[in-house]
Amino acid sequence: MCGIAGLIAGHDDVSCADAQILADSLRHRGPDDEGYLTLHADGSTQLWAGRDTDPTLGLPRLNPSMHVRVVLAHRRLSILDLSTAGHQPMSDESGRFWVVLNGEIYNYVELKRELGGLGHHFKTRSDTEVLLAALHEWGDQAVRRFRGMFAFAVVDRLRREVLLVRDPFGIKPLYYSRVAGGGLAFASEMKALVSLRSVSPEPQADALFQFIRFGLSDNGDRTMFSDIRQLPAGHILRIPLNDTASVAPVRYWSLPQRTNSVGNATEAARIVRDALLKSISLHMRSDVRVGSCLSGGLDSTAIVAVASTMIPASPGFGTVSFISEDPSGSEAPYVAIAERTYRIDSHRVEISAADIHKDLATLVRTQDVPFGSLSIYAQFTVFREAFANGLTVMLDGQGSDELLGGYNTAISAAVAERLANGRLAAAVSLVRAFNPIGEGAYRRTMLAALGRFVPPSIAPLLMRVVNEPLCPKWLDPDWFADRGVRMAVRAQGRGRDAVDQELRLFTEELSLPQLLRYEDRNSMAFGIESRVPFCDVDFAEAVASIPTSLLVTSLGQTKAPLKGAFRGLVPDEIIDRTKVGFNTPDRVWFAALKPWLLKKLHEESPRLPFLRIDRFLNELERGPGNRADISHRLWRMISTVLWAEAFEINAV
After folding, report:
1. Structural domains of the chain, count
2. For residue 260, is it within any domain?
3. φ, ψ of residue 169 in degrees (nearest 5)
């Protein structure tokens, strides 16, 4: 895991000083090493050192006053081949390709064996060298062979172009922006790009509305910053060195179409179990210590059940769990069951409102953009605890709910789908069996099911009728309208295949992209590589063979194949518990932080004229407990205010 960055010249050369600024902004992502490559007008290249480069490499120090056609920057967190042989930027045998890689190619061992048979020779044990050989052998098609999480930039000296590539699920981030002189800059984090003088922190109004109203971010290529785009998951951006102006990402991978080839629940469970076991085995490849987040839910416990058997008894497989101070939402009983069941070296984190107050400014800066709830802070502290206990690689369960239908929205889609297919009895059975935790969860889910039959054009009118207006009273609709924002309800699965549509939306747009960003920023803040075995192309192929009726059953069971797959490996108490998500005691925290939050809102609200502060404070005064989801809406507004302060944003 690493941080990568670079600049590509337009009509003017780019500055090596700017490359150094980008790399310095990413130092937390790669504290172990630093490296640079410059490409000059005559086609020659040169490697350079930074202040953290190993002196035994004998590289000259980068001259910040130099201007070149292309400069690549790399910050290294050593995971595979810890020697200096893994230093980047790295070239292939021929010197045609130069790469900076963030992430891991988990199947590099198998690819290395295949490429060796084709005549390639290797000097290191790193996956980066395998990536380069694969590009040399198979060209762009090599990316379809990679199983892993990655974002990389490749300079192709023969074709005189730069390729930016992001993994199929978008686990590893990659952003780019126009810079002075007609060129492009790219980096692993938005804060790095914003640190350049030619990149403005001006907010993107439509992205801002989508976040504040629906809690959505990270979908497509748009970001919260008008000047910055993200390379979407499963895309390649090809940048000719003689024409940086007309470039557009091209998709190389998307979720497979559902084949429905699996005929029964037993077969579905076997397929899920086999695919996940293989994925976890690949994700365990590391030259440093591996552990896992452990929430007490099925996803993380299933990972721990498998991974803990692959680690020697000493020091053991490390786990870290967040424990809520609110007993009613605490995962402690289920974490304790896992701790008793598996051979693990377990650690727990408990936090208070005072901790949040102390760390919140750091967290906002860490995340780059506003975030949806304080559960993100709980995750931040989990990775901090992992770092304190020497766990450099951490596994986590992101992607399971999106691929296998673990959210309540999958239930509402399943009800609508059964109705659309004329299966009234199955729909009624599901409605009766559904028994969620949370105030108003049942009512919201059933209303959402009926809402899937409402044409999108009249949905805003009905939202007002049920007191859920598209634009809340404390937002100024004119501010957004003046900036071209067209307010509309979010996309959702409809009709005869509503569940499949919904899972695809949640995986590609609505949920997983932002969860992966939270995970990436929180883990990399402490130099930890977070890995997500459910987000694997072969696992996704396996799940696509299962009909959605076996994922979300008419008995109200979600993620049914995963539960069947791990029955006997994971305690029944964990498998059969009702899903609660990653719970944090927001109500308690809000009450303790209220005076400070009010002060912040008054001080910083002038930066955000779309916020009708008096109406917003009135909503706050009514308290988070009036409706189950109000604390999330309030937090989104507070988070936006804190983000504006952190990045000195003025939306006037």
Report:
1. 4
2. no
3. -95, -10
